[in-house]
Design the sequence.
């Protein structure tokens, strides 16, 4: 059974007021920072590990992106790259524009050493990465961040959110010429869209790989070696992930998944493996990224307060099947509804089978958890349930997960 207590999402994207456009034309292993297991059809490992990387110099500087006030009007931002032919992207232009916004992160403590990737998100020196990268070496670790041009800076942890596997670092005395990434809209992605992964896999600096969006809303659960990442059982990572065929390997964790026009649509976080032995594997063409809309929401909260709120439904559920018309359908079957929760207020009952949320299919308990977790506190969602053989829609307003 799964307790559905999940996370928040903010509405305002970061934009670039005056981006530079690029016209398209024809480490060594020390100790791995923990292995993960996907609960469901796949087993997955963190796309980081004990690899070291040195960044390369980029021959070009794209536009910067700056955060905007939540009350300020937001105009659509011009993309860092203007592709002449969207059906045949010039990935050289994309890599040139995005690489200065992606960094290598090295963590060192008496217990472990390791490396991952990160993304510059503002001029103040905030770096968005995975929680398992930021905290994987344990308490008291020293953190250094190497920019694309080879400059290295010390960093501290601004905030962590173990349940989404996201963290924000702050550079110590950051330079004035940082190149923040431009956030895109991950909700606008479609299966088949071309994407590029940028990071530092296996100690190979400034690596870019390309592929497509293989699937959306893929429920992925990761969680082992929880203590090393500050997790508790309630913090098990469940993501409504972007699945991609772009090659992702250990060391890519926290790096950027971008569209061909250079917009950030995901934070690379985990990779599939063929077994559950606990050892990390290399790329097999199935990687997962945390959607950028979710990542930005968490980053905003971590920068502001050091922690994040999460949306909450208030039920436990299990995988099951239900008769839906003349067919059988997989569903998340509610096992219990806690009193005084959004689920109880909406009239949900034990035995209800959730088959969709806001029109998106829900076919497992994990899928329901993932769908709730990407919502904002206070969001009103519509759950489609099957009760006594009949479908009905139930409106639920999600609240903040209670402490404990």
Sequence:
């Amino acid at each position: 059974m799964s307790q559905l207590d999940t996370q928040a999402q903010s509405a305002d994207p970061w934009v670039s007021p005056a981006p530079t456009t690029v016209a398209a034309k024809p480490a060594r292993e020390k100790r791995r920072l923990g292995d993960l297991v996907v609960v469901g059809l796949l087993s997955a490992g963190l796309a980081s590990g004990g690899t070291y990387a040195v960044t390369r110099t980029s021959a070009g500087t794209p536009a910067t992106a700056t955060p905007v006030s939540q009350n300020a009007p937001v105009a659509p931002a011009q993309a860092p790259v203007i592709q002449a032919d969207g059906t045949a992207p010039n990935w050289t232009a994309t890599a040139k524009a995005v690489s200065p916004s992606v960094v290598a992160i090295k963590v060192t403590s008496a217990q472990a050493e390791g490396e991952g990737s990160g993304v510059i998100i503002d001029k103040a020196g905030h770096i968005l990465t995975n929680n398992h990268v930021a905290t994987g070496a344990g308490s008291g670790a020293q953190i250094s961040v190497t920019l694309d041009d080879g400059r290295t800076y010390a960093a501290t942890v601004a905030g962590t959110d173990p349940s989404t596997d996201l963290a924000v670092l702050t550079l110590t005395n950051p330079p004035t010429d940082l190149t923040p990434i431009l956030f895109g809209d991950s909700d606008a992605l479609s299966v088949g869209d071309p994407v590029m992964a940028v990071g530092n896999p296996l100690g190979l600096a400034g690596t870019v790989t390309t592929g497509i969006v293989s699937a959306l809303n893929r429920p992925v659960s990761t969680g082992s070696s929880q203590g090393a990442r500050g997790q508790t059982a309630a913090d098990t990572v469940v993501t409504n992930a972007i699945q991609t065929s772009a090659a992702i390997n250990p060391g890519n964790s926290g790096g950027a998944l971008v569209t061909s026009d250079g917009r950030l649509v995901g934070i690379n976080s985990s990779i599939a493996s063929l077994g559950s032995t606990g050892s990390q594997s290399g790329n097999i063409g199935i990687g997962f990224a945390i959607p950028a809309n979710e990542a930005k929401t968490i980053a905003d909260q971590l920068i502001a307060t050091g922690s994040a709120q999460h949306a909450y439904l208030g039920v436990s559920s299990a995988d099951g099947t239900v008769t839906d018309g003349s067919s059988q359908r997989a569903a998340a079957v509610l096992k219990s509804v806690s009193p005084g929760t959004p689920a109880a207020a909406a009239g949900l009952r034990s035995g209800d089978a959730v088959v969709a949320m806001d029109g998106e299919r829900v076919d497992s308990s994990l899928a329901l958890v993932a769908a709730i977790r990407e919502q904002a506190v206070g969001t009103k969602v519509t759950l489609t349930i099957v009760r006594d053989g009949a479908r009905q829609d139930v409106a639920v307003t999600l609240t903040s997960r209670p402490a404990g």
